[in-house]
Amino acid sequence: MTALVTFGETMLRLSPPRGERLETARELEVQAGGAESNVAVAATRLGGDAAWFSKLPDSPLGRRIVGELRSHGVDTDGVVWTDDARQGVYYLEHGASPRPTNVVYDRADAAVTTLETGETDLDAVRDAEVCYTSGITPALSETLRETTADVLDAAQDAGTTTAFDLNYRTKLWSPEEAAEGYRALLGSVDLLFAAERDAATVLGRDGDAESVARGLAEDYGIETVVVTRGEEGSLAVSGGAVSEQGVYEAETRDAIGTGDAFVGGYLAKHLDGGSVAESLQWASATASLKRTVDGDIAVVNPEDVERVVADEGDGISR
Amino acid sequence: MTALVTFGETMLRLSPPRGERLETARELEVQAGGAESNVAVAATRLGGDAAWFSKLPDSPLGRRIVGELRSHGVDTDGVVWTDDARQGVYYLEHGASPRPTNVVYDRADAAVTTLETGETDLDAVRDAEVCYTSGITPALSETLRETTADVLDAAQDAGTTTAFDLNYRTKLWSPEEAAEGYRALLGSVDLLFAAERDAATVLGRDGDAESVARGLAEDYGIETVVVTRGEEGSLAVSGGAVSEQGVYEAETRDAIGTGDAFVGGYLAKHLDGGSVAESLQWASATASLKRTVDGDIAVVNPEDVERVVADEGDGISR
Amino acid sequence: MTALVTFGETMLRLSPPRGERLETARELEVQAGGAESNVAVAATRLGGDAAWFSKLPDSPLGRRIVGELRSHGVDTDGVVWTDDARQGVYYLEHGASPRPTNVVYDRADAAVTTLETGETDLDAVRDAEVCYTSGITPALSETLRETTADVLDAAQDAGTTTAFDLNYRTKLWSPEEAAEGYRALLGSVDLLFAAERDAATVLGRDGDAESVARGLAEDYGIETVVVTRGEEGSLAVSGGAVSEQGVYEAETRDAIGTGDAFVGGYLAKHLDGGSVAESLQWASATASLKRTVDGDIAVVNPEDVERVVADEGDGISR
Amino acid sequence: MTALVTFGETMLRLSPPRGERLETARELEVQAGGAESNVAVAATRLGGDAAWFSKLPDSPLGRRIVGELRSHGVDTDGVVWTDDARQGVYYLEHGASPRPTNVVYDRADAAVTTLETGETDLDAVRDAEVCYTSGITPALSETLRETTADVLDAAQDAGTTTAFDLNYRTKLWSPEEAAEGYRALLGSVDLLFAAERDAATVLGRDGDAESVARGLAEDYGIETVVVTRGEEGSLAVSGGAVSEQGVYEAETRDAIGTGDAFVGGYLAKHLDGGSVAESLQWASATASLKRTVDGDIAVVNPEDVERVVADEGDGISR
Amino acid sequence: MTALVTFGETMLRLSPPRGERLETARELEVQAGGAESNVAVAATRLGGDAAWFSKLPDSPLGRRIVGELRSHGVDTDGVVWTDDARQGVYYLEHGASPRPTNVVYDRADAAVTTLETGETDLDAVRDAEVCYTSGITPALSETLRETTADVLDAAQDAGTTTAFDLNYRTKLWSPEEAAEGYRALLGSVDLLFAAERDAATVLGRDGDAESVARGLAEDYGIETVVVTRGEEGSLAVSGGAVSEQGVYEAETRDAIGTGDAFVGGYLAKHLDGGSVAESLQWASATASLKRTVDGDIAVVNPEDVERVVADEGDGISR
Amino acid sequence: MTALVTFGETMLRLSPPRGERLETARELEVQAGGAESNVAVAATRLGGDAAWFSKLPDSPLGRRIVGELRSHGVDTDGVVWTDDARQGVYYLEHGASPRPTNVVYDRADAAVTTLETGETDLDAVRDAEVCYTSGITPALSETLRETTADVLDAAQDAGTTTAFDLNYRTKLWSPEEAAEGYRALLGSVDLLFAAERDAATVLGRDGDAESVARGLAEDYGIETVVVTRGEEGSLAVSGGAVSEQGVYEAETRDAIGTGDAFVGGYLAKHLDGGSVAESLQWASATASLKRTVDGDIAVVNPEDVERVVADEGDGISR
Ligand SMILES: [Ca+2]
Ligand SMILES: [Ca+2]
Ligand SMILES: [Ca+2]
Ligand SMILES: [Ca+2]
Ligand SMILES: [Ca+2]
Ligand SMILES: [Ca+2]
Ligand SMILES: [Ca+2]
Ligand SMILES: [Ca+2]
Ligand SMILES: [Ca+2]
Ligand SMILES: [Ca+2]
Ligand SMILES: [Ca+2]
Ligand SMILES: [Ca+2]
Ligand code: NI
Ligand code: NI
Ligand code: NI
Ligand code: NI
Ligand code: NI
Ligand code: NI
Ligand code: NI
Ligand code: NI
Ligand code: NI
Ligand code: NI
Ligand code: NI
Ligand code: NI
Ligand code: NI
Ligand code: NI
Ligand code: NI
Ligand code: NI
Ligand code: NI
Ligand code: NI
Fold first, then answer.
1. How far is CA B199 from CA A206, B168, B176, B284, F33, in A?
2. Searching chain B, which residue's CA lies closest to the CA of residue A105?
3. Looking at the CA of D13, which ligand is closest?
4. What is the pLDDT of residue C178?
């Protein structure tokens, strides 16, 4: 039994060295990357005791994913293995202004798209304190849309807090499709993370962050809604009360995974009994630290987060 | 117009450093690899003026393939670009006895599987002296099976010599499926390359190399049949006459692509007016050199081949 | 026949990793780098169909150059091969303020310095729409000075637009030598690119950019003069009309080749029928993108340039 | 609860690229290496469900060790963390005949040398089927000598099979010291692995392998004694019965860890209910596979071992 | 005989690539790093003819240190070799705000901590113009505290200028211990370098830089006191006269070793007959250049420093 | 004053990773390589106290050479620096049978070719016990031919033992030119190293090794002649007495520099008072060890050589 259970797709992330383009690359760095496993890793590293499940090919590539997640302490016992489907991949080309960072997805027909409810360990979900997935999961297949609904439902019924990040991806579905997908799930969500831009683009919620959060909380009966606003910081409405949090500025090496680190930091503090305001602060500090590290994953420790929160500066420690 | 036109699938080849396994890899080396483009590269490098066509995603990954082939001088103007399909990939783990070299294919639904005859430039094929593909191509999709038949047919009708390598792949189809696939094509083939093992496994031809070659030549009306026997060398039956060729021993760095280098060396010499015996000798020398170089591709020059054929030794040249 | 023909020297560029100095280097990255081939690559990548010719040693080093240029689609059939001269090299040490980027040339007696007019394919030049070289070429040898004059002359006589970038290099000749060299050629130039600083240092033209451009246009009868002013942007005078263009700001990885990317972008748009103003805009966008990529070469695509011109931002595309 | 518990020191292994010497190295590859964790990893990867415990500094270096072991599925919950001691390191220079592979130990005062019995989780040991350590552990400190005795004792008392490998290291203690150390422990051992050379050098047992095994079994009341003889294979005496096993020849990349892989393969098969003969066969196959992989660790899967045992050849699998 | 003799500890510096954390590292870059050898290297490279002595293990690791220092021209003949102690190491993780650069020391019981006065070549010290060490040396062991006092004493008695940098390290001793250590030595110092922060933290000197310098000069009878103030520049009081120097701004790659480069630049100019003001200027320029280069060591040449001092800009030199 | 003085050309050696060809290389490894500095390094590392002089460009490339040689302890104070000539380079492509290792020289007009006698420090040569150069030096330029003669002459006149290796290079001069060059020098040689093949090809000496050695000794009045015969071992005739030495077999990583290591090992033992037979044995052992290390340079220590001579085996030392 773990305190946090997350599920979703984790891909191989393949990226050429900074300053090189994919179409001339000779070497690619390999990492595991996926929104929900990113959250599980961050939360586990920060003390949160997390599991992640998914469906993976029983191949060196699938084992490559599980090995990396386990190295950070994430429990992967719930992974479903198959001989009949492929491993999703994404190619990441680091940008530099005005050239954007470019992601080439090669995730169609990944094993996870065939994950059915009956294959999952719902008891682990029911025993957890928090169950998390993101809006990427239902976007991947019709099957996953059903599985996502079933899992969140089972969790909420069992008293597990359900957490969800909209995580809208334009390369996966249209705003209209996403809106429909989200609406089918939001009734089962207790803790929602929503980027201001996603709320506007997909759900048509355009006001200030607080009114967006209040609106979502009310319309879908969500206990806590956290709205993130990029460099403007974040805001939570929980049981009617508002908490605000600024960003910690970072020298950015790799922005991928920032949002997942934010959620992971939030959940770690939340599981540790932190208040909404304290959890937001950990979320923000973890997100900032993530940006200093290559890869999807927030390779951080509790001391790192505490140091940022305490604002102890960033000179050389010796 | 080029002297040789080849077509088929070319994949990204991703491989960890020697001594590392895929499931713990952090870095992958990238190359373009595909039987028919390997042949085109070897033939072009050895003076043969070749083109290769296929269907590729209009993405950095597809452009990555074309860039590498062009760097060796191969004409890629006939490539069909699409926004609707993916780039095939194969993962290569270098083995060391008793651990076999392992190939993990991720080529399902690659763009090339949708290549229809109508998309190809049959005039380029008709204008060429030789048109080459291998048994991998019809194994990839029903569409490709038809396209392969159409192209070989059009070539032969126009007086272009059609060349074909059985290239049986157990991970693509069963021996029975392959047998059916081959039989539908062999009537359109003028020059056949057949590994002794493929001829046995798929076509049930079990005698000595010469009788296998004679049998295939007669049964399918093939002008020249080259049977390769691994370390035993190779043998050709052409117009009834037999030529034999031993292997040149090599210190093997990377065995992938050896067979394609053999065909490429053969065709280069053939296009240059070489006899069957001379072409076999170039084939064998090119195959041997390929084994000393990392990657699918035979990065060789005519002087390299001439030196091997002349048996000038392999000390340090300074 | 290609729309654009460029000629000049292309060197091996050898550079240690960023943060390391040449005198302690253990590894050097290898690239092909040369002003005129940089222009050919940028123009070809952006749709311009270009060739480049030069004289190279018939060695692995010479073939290394040609292989890289061909990978980007540049036609190198006009290259003259020799067994009697060396490959030019330049060593590049990336700087960081206050340490300047340092270039160590080792290009004396490179094969290209012996390229005579009689060895070149003047018909390819006469058939092209544009023929380009830069002020580096006549600086390399007396022979090249004559060849440059002959080629530009032949081009202009045949109605091919002749394009030229002053490209003054202090390590190659003095301002006085350069002035004499330029003056011998400018009468044969239809489209001139001149850095404001070169125009001042070498040609003693000190006024504002517009008056410099008008002065050069009038004094040498040049149809279009483009003056580049670093971060101040660029300005063209063409048929008396003035066009101005700002720079697109870039996060610079590698500034080498910025000017060549500018010319390549200009020519690509020009060959596509763009106006002077549109060509300047593509020039500026291509130059900006170049700075984000390691190496001399602008590894860019038309969509990249269009995106910069449309100012679509530089976040993560996923 | 895990089926196998191992304990001992795991060091950072730092090694320059093959062909480079330590004293000119600029880059070192990092791995976790330790006899007992090597055994745990091999056994876990082969299905054996293992834990490893030790004492590590609560630092990035200590966490580096645990992360790598966890990635292979080893349970590290029993690790004792300290702020007061250092991480052991060993530097490995790959040899090539006649230059030996050289190991430079820097393990004095490592955290593990202070591990006391009271800090360990003896219940986990008592609940396991097998408890393993090697002769390196008692060689590291007086404290560890006592802890080793206590743990083996507690295990044996609880009915857990105690397994031990002599693993004599000349750089840690003299043959006389080792003999004394071993004798204090062998009475608590149920399953002994002894290299023929160690038995001779340290314990003065010089006869043929069978008589060495029988002698050790009788003198110390050990149920099963496995004697390994390098290229000569191995031999076990168990309950009086003898089993023999040859080596599987390997193309060796890295011989470090071969003995540990042997033990890991043996224990995995043993835990799975295999006979002594079957366990020896798995031991030998795992050892052979280890030699093909860089690093201390046998990155192997059950299918790999089965393939070697079935002698299916080592060509390319595609 | 060399003009400058320095002594102290030099460690192996092991650091993962920028953006990677120690606890997930697979590769570490290796360098020699130590305050006093950093000073010797900088001074030698800038023309100052320096020696460095210490005590090192007679192993590949100790030889690795000496080899790197010698490559820069430092005389290492005074090094004492031992078979009985280890090589100190430090692990360096590059930070990015808000994540600090982190140093993990593994230097306890390094060979140098056993260096006794009787093992050193005091004649070399007496013959030198300047003898330098830093506050790190006496912090390392009781033995070294005595040796440091003896050497500085012998130097001063012989008329050699003694130079000392406080170099307070929180991971080595407390402010109180350091204060006691410094006070035992300052009476033997002729030229003191003190970071403003160290003077405040350890010696309780809190006023402006000038008063700190004057106070230290008077209280300990030090001829010249240089106070460094980070980005605020530096100030020297020498014989009552004050000199001030600003910093040269740098694009920082690696801040480690900045202070040592400052001292090295100062001493090089001083040995060349420069005034205090000129020496400060070289100090500042050398420090600035150091920051642009990876590693502890200022890989700089006199021309680099002269260029910075002359403020010649930092474009591309070609 | 050093015991051994060597002089000649040292180049930058640039080589792609094993298995890659020069014409597709993206990265080159950098080393210093030159016959006479290779000898100086080997001799110094083995205790022989050596200097090397030459003429180098005062550039990062020239300093790169000197830095590497100094790192091994070679005295480079005699190097002559110039602003007017280039650094020689050689490109090395590792072969694998049947593809030979290929060397591409780019050494024409290197600074060393202008080294005149008047620029050298003849006193250092006269003070040395041994002065060494090889047949490459006079092959490089007319100037060097004279300088070589002058230096050997001055050495011999002063009682310094002059040592010389024929080192015939087909890419530098014809056998006839070499024969003339050698004959002009051999009268000044006291200790000659001659590969059997060079003696035959250039000097037309075809008999068995002993008669070749005796013939050369007599015809040119050479005290000691060492004839090397590749895998057949070596033979010396000194004062009429014959010594023979077999080769120590090696697992070859890099054969370049084997002959220089042989000479370096010989001279180190000779300077240490060894007999001809002992010196031959060290020569052979050093040559064998060199082959196990990447690069031109024998990174060896006296213990390594002693171990080979004592034939202590090549297992793992731990
Ligand atoms: Ca790069
Ligand atoms: Ca990285
Ligand atoms: Ca590699
Ligand atoms: Ca590796
Ligand atoms: Ca790498
Ligand atoms: Ca580096
Ligand atoms: Ca490398
Ligand atoms: Ca290397
Ligand atoms: Ca590296
Ligand atoms: Ca990396
Ligand atoms: Ca490679
Ligand atoms: Ca690299
Ligand atoms: Ni990256
Ligand atoms: Ni790289
Ligand atoms: Ni890397
Ligand atoms: Ni590979
Ligand atoms: Ni690598
Ligand atoms: Ni670079
Ligand atoms: Ni590197
Ligand atoms: Ni790189
Ligand atoms: Ni290794
Ligand atoms: Ni390397
Ligand atoms: Ni490397
Ligand atoms: Ni590596
Ligand atoms: Ni670094
Ligand atoms: Ni690497
Ligand atoms: Ni590196
Ligand atoms: Ni190499
Ligand atoms: Ni590499
Ligand atoms: Ni690389």
1. 68, 9, 12, 19, 52
2. B86
3. 21
4. 98
Confidence (pLDDT) at B265: 98
pLDDT of E198 over the 90 cut: yes
Nearest ligand, measured from the Cα of D257: 21
Q: Which one-letter amino acid corresponds to residue F172?
A: L
Interface test with B, best of D292, D301, D306 (most B CBs within 10 A): D292
Instruction: Give residue C314's pLDDT.
Output: 57
Share of chain E above pLDDT 90, in %: 97
Cβ distance E99 to A314 less than 8 Å, yes or no, reads yes
Catalytic residue (choose from D75, D260, D296, D304): D260
ipTM for the predicted complex: 0.94
Q: Pick from B97, B103, B171: which is nearest to D314 by CB?
A: B97
- The two tokens of residue C305 are 């340039």
| Chain D residues with at least one Cβ partner in A under 8 Å | 63, 67-68, 70-73, 301
C-alpha dihedral (B263, B269, B271, B272), degrees to nearest 10: 170
| CATH code, D117 | 3.40.1190.20
Contact in structure between E126 and E1 (CB atoms under 8 Å):
no
B–F: how many Cβ contacts below 8 A?
A: 63
Candidates F49, F254, F260, F304; catalytic one? F260
- Residues B199-238 have pLDDT tens digits of 999 999 989 999 999 999 999 999 999 999 999 999 999 9
**Which of E64, E108, E109 lies closest to D25 in CB terms?**
E64
Q: Nearest ligand, CA of residue B254?
A: 16
The residues of C assigned a catalytic role are 260
- Residue F12 counted as domain residue: yes
- The residue annotated as part of the active site, out of B165, B190, B198, B260, is B260
* Residue B167 predicted with pLDDT over 70: yes
Instruction: Please return the burial class of F84, using the count of CB atoms within 10 Å of its CB with bins 0-12, 13-18 and 19+.
Output: exposed
- Tens of pLDDT, residue by residue over E263-295, are 999 999 999 999 999 999 999 999 999 999 999
- Under a CB-based contact definition with an 8 Å cutoff, are residues F140 and F110 in contact? yes
Q: How far is B74 from chain C (nearest CA, A)?
A: 9
Question: Is B23 in contact with A102 (Cβ distance < 8 A)?
Answer: no
The answer to whether the CB atoms of A24 and B93 lie below 8 A apart is no
The length of chain E is: 318
Residue E262: which domain range?
2-312
With respect to residue C283, please indicate whether it lies within any of the assigned structural domains.
yes
Give a three-class secondary structure readout of chain A: CCCEEEECCCEEEEECCCCCCHHHCCEEEEEEECHHHHHHHHHHHCCCCEEEECEEECCHHHHHHHHHHHHCCCECCCCEEECCCECCEEEEECCECCECEEEEEECCCEHHHHCCHHHCCHHHHHHCCEEEEECHHHHHCHHHHHHHHHHHHHHHHCCCEEEEECCCCCCCCCHHHHHHHHHHHHCCCCEEEEEHHHHHHHHCCCCCHHHHHHHHHHHHCCCEEEEECHHHCEEEEECCEEEEECCCCCCCCCCCCHHHHHHHHHHHHHHCCCCHHHHHHHHHHHHHHHCCCCCCCCCCCHHHHHHHHCCCCCCEEC
Instruction: Please say if D260 is a catalytic residue.
Output: yes
- Within a domain: B318: no
Contact at CB, B251 and F97, closer than 8 angstroms: yes
Number of domains in chain A: 1
Question: Does the distance separating the beta carbons of A170 and C314 come in below 8 Å?
Answer: no
Residue E306 has pLDDT above 70, yes or no: yes
From the CA of E255, how far away is ligand 5's center (Å)? 24
d(CA D89, CA D69): 16
Please indicate whether, in this complex, the C-beta atoms of D100 and F316 are within 8 angstroms of each other. Answer: yes
pLDDT of E55 strictly over 90: yes
Q: Chain F contacts of C22, Cβ < 8 Å?
A: 60-61, 64
Q: Examine residue A318 and state whether it is found in any structural domain, yes or no.
A: no
